[in-house]
Specification:
Blueprint: H1 7-12, H2 17-25, H3 29-33, E1 59-62, H4 66-69, E2 77-80, H5 82-88, H6 94-104, H7 109-119, H8 124-133, H9 138-151
Antiparallel strand pairs: 1-2
């Protein structure tokens, strides 16, 4: 059994979020676990909470608590927003809780983007009209979207 002397060491021995996402998106790992219905996690996207879909800073959260299993492998980790991470720790039946969250509280990435834009004071209808006024000038359209996301504090990655 591994005993972690401090949280810094515990976190440093955990796989990076990209590794966790890759694990859960590969080889139908959710279906293989038999915990949730087939195809249930087909919507796990980069940057989204596995439970609610929120696009915020994500925590690497243990499925089986570290104190019970000492396992920092990707198969024992999910990416959860701070609210879901906190909530999940108060439920002894993790998979039951996760199933409930996915069925009753899941919102798409687009929903959270729009909510963040609104909370930044951006008038969505006005910005849609402005965006459409650019016609087929795709460079201007892309620049406009990046500007809005930046105002709302949403980071985007260049692929």
């Amino acid at each position: 059994m591994t005993i972690y002397l401090n949280n810094r060491f515990k976190r440093s021995s955990m796989p990076k979020p990209d590794i966790i996402l890759k694990y859960w998106n590969s080889n139908n790992n959710y279906e293989r676990l038999g915990k949730l219905p087939s195809g249930y996690f087909s919507m796990v996207e980069k940057g989204c909470c596995f439970a609610c879909g929120n696009i915020t800073l994500l925590h690497r959260a243990h499925i089986i608590p570290l104190a019970q299993c000492s396992d920092n492998k990707a198969e024992n980790l999910h990416l959860l927003c701070p609210g879901c991470h906190n909530e999940s720790e108060s439920h002894p039946a993790y998979w039951t809780w996760l199933h409930y969250k996915r069925c009753n509280h899941w919102k798409s990435k687009d929903y959270y983007i729009v909510e963040r834009l609104k909370s930044a004071g951006i008038n969505i209808d006005q910005e849609i009209e402005r965006h459409e006024s650019f016609g087929t000038n795709w460079e201007k359209r892309e620049s406009h979207i990046k500007e809005l996301l930046s105002i709302a504090g949403i980071l985007i990655e260049n692929n």
